[in-house]
Amino acid sequence: MIARKNKWLLAGVQMALLVWSGTSFAADRVYVANEGADMVSVHDAASFEKLASVPVGQMPHNVQVSPDGKFAWVTNNGEPGQASGSTSHKGANHAAHGATEQPGAVWIIDTSTNAVVAKVAVGMHPAHVVVTPDGSLAYVTNGGDNSVSVIDTSARSLLATIAVGQFPHGLRVSPDGKEVYVANLKGGTVSIIDTASQKEVAKLPVGKGPAQTGFTPDGRFAFVSLSQENAVALIDPATRKVIRKVAVGTVPIQLYATPDSRTLLVANQGTRKMPGKTVSLIDLTTSKVVKTIETGSGAHGVVVDRAGRLAYVTNIYANSVSVMDLENRSVTKTIRVGKAPNGISITP
After folding, report:
1. Domain range holding 250?
2. Helix-strand-coil percent breakdown of the chain, rounded to 5?
3. For the domain that residue 75 is a member of, what is the CATH number?
4. H or E segment to which residue 335 belongs
5. Would you say residue 57 lies in a domain?
């Protein structure tokens, strides 16, 4: 009896240590910006059970969890109920998201309570938001006025506004935190922002319809989806030049590299009339598509968990999210979420 009690005591201690150490994957959460529902849905990363629905501003386009996992940053077009127009990404083939005549905002969700704790006004028609690796700064693309807003995350206030190319959309921070790459959707360029000076230091011609940028975690490659070329451009960050283009599916939008820097996932959205429903997997050692995986109608946003085991893809026309097993390279489940799911992020 004593041995049995000790066995259960030891098991309890081990479980407590596992939770305390932060190695339990059950605690991971996925945040989905449901643009057509004016809310962010929160899901358990393992079961994808919905844990919460957080009302946010009008037409939330993108969500990004901070590197410490404490906050989720959401771009939107202001308070619900404001009169909205039909302004869209004119000249692009992917889904439109509305805009108002008022400046947009970033709303900040406390991930421990799933409550909105702050709102920061930015520029017109904000699209994407990213947070630097040290968590000190957030960058927001303002498609309506060709700028990027820089936010002091501690003060939760606007620090700077940087002029970039025409209709900036997706953006990502380099792994060392020194540069931000901004996809200028209508300009055919990628703007490079120096995070020390808060200035645009270069503008790279990349191709037609650049929608989202990214980096491999090892910093070896940068890349940008070309929504009007059905391709991805691979960039050498050292020389700031496009080194090759890789053909993918129709109207590629978001992309994300695996933690081992070996594979790039590209969501191919297509158009509303002719939806795409695949994710292309590019082997970054050969620069070739090695697998095309079917997800759902309008594959748009994509994120990979920190272990590189699972990927999550928003299907904007199907109002769903597909969960992908990256070892088996197959979809394991597809779950209904809110209307027009767009950006997606996972706790680090």
Report:
1. 27-346
2. 5, 50, 40
3. 2.130.10.10
4. strand 330-336
5. yes
pTM, 2 dp: 0.89
In a domain, 20, yes or no: no
Cα three-residue angle 245-247-253, rounded to 5 degrees: 95
Kind and range of the H or E element at 32?
A: strand 29-34
Residue 49 lies in a domain: yes
Q: What tens-digit pLDDT sequence spans the chain (348 residues)? A: 444 444 444 444 443 433 333 333 346 999 999 999 999 999 999 999 999 999 999 999 999 999 999 999 999 998 886 544 433 344 444 444 444 567 899 999 999 999 999 999 999 999 999 999 999 999 999 999 999 999 999 999 999 999 999 999 999 999 999 999 999 999 999 999 999 999 999 999 999 999 999 999 999 999 999 999 999 999 999 999 999 999 999 999 999 999 999 999 999 999 999 999 999 999 999 999 999 999 999 999 999 999 999 999 999 999 999 999 999 999 999 999 999 999 999 999
* Separation of CA 252 from chain center: 14
Q: How many structural domains compose the chain?
A: 1
Q: Residue written as tokens 């940008």?
A: 224
**C-alpha span between 279 and 266 (Å, rounded):** 5
> Could you give phi then psi for residue 25, rounded to 5 degrees?
-75, -15
- Among 202, 201, 168, 170, smallest CA distance to 187 is for 168
Give the span between the Cα atoms of 55 and 90, in whole angstroms: 27
The answer as to whether 13 is a domain residue is: no
